[in-house]
């Protein structure tokens, strides 16, 4: 997993006001793991402190996607 420093480095240098997180599950289920959920919550907290809104977190596989926002997980 990435650290908040890695996730927010480019948005900070670009003066972004919002980001959408994304990662892939190349094989298997799209459902987020506990680590995915905890990491998303942590990154949302860090983003709030820095004034960068985390708008969604999307997990992709080869044919589908899972949106935290659309599934009301943490948003």
Short summary:
With 75 residues, the chain is of the alpha+beta class.
What does this structure look like?
The protein is α+β, with helices and mostly antiparallel strands and 75 residues long. The protein has a single domain (4-67), classed as 3-Layer(aba) Sandwich (Cytidine Deaminase, domain 2). Helices cover 36% and strands 24% of the residues. The chain is built from two helices and three strands; from the N terminus they run αβαββ. It has a three-stranded mixed sheet, covered by helices on one side. β1 (18-24), α2 and β2 form a beta-alpha-beta unit. The longest helix is centred in the middle third of the chain and has 17 residues, at 34-50. It is globular, with a radius of gyration of 12 Å. The two termini are 20 Å apart. The mean pLDDT is 94.
Spatial extent as radius of gyration:
12 Å
Instruction: Summarize the amount of helix as a percent range.
Output: 25-40%
CATH class: Alpha Beta
Tell me the structural class: alpha+beta
As residue ranges, the low-confidence spans are none
From the 3D coordinates, which CATH architecture would you assign? 3-Layer(aba) Sandwich
Number of DSSP-assigned strands: 3
**N→C terminal distance:** 20 Å
Shape: globular
The run of helices and strands is HEHEE
Taking all residues together, what is the mean pLDDT?
94
Number of domains: 1
DSSP strand (E) fraction? 15-25%
Question: How many helices?
Answer: 2
> How does the major sheet shape up?
3 strands, mixed
Spatial order of the strands forming the largest sheet: 1-2-3
């Amino acid at each position: 997993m990435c650290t908040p420093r890695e996730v927010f480095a480019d948005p900070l240098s670009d003066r972004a006001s919002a980001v959408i997180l994304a990662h892939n599950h190349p094989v298997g289920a799209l459902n987020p793991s506990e680590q995915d959920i905890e990491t998303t919550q942590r990154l949302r907290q860090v983003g709030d402190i820095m004034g960068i809104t985390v708008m969604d977190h999307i997990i992709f596989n080869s044919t589908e996607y899972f949106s935290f926002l659309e599934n009301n997980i943490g948003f």
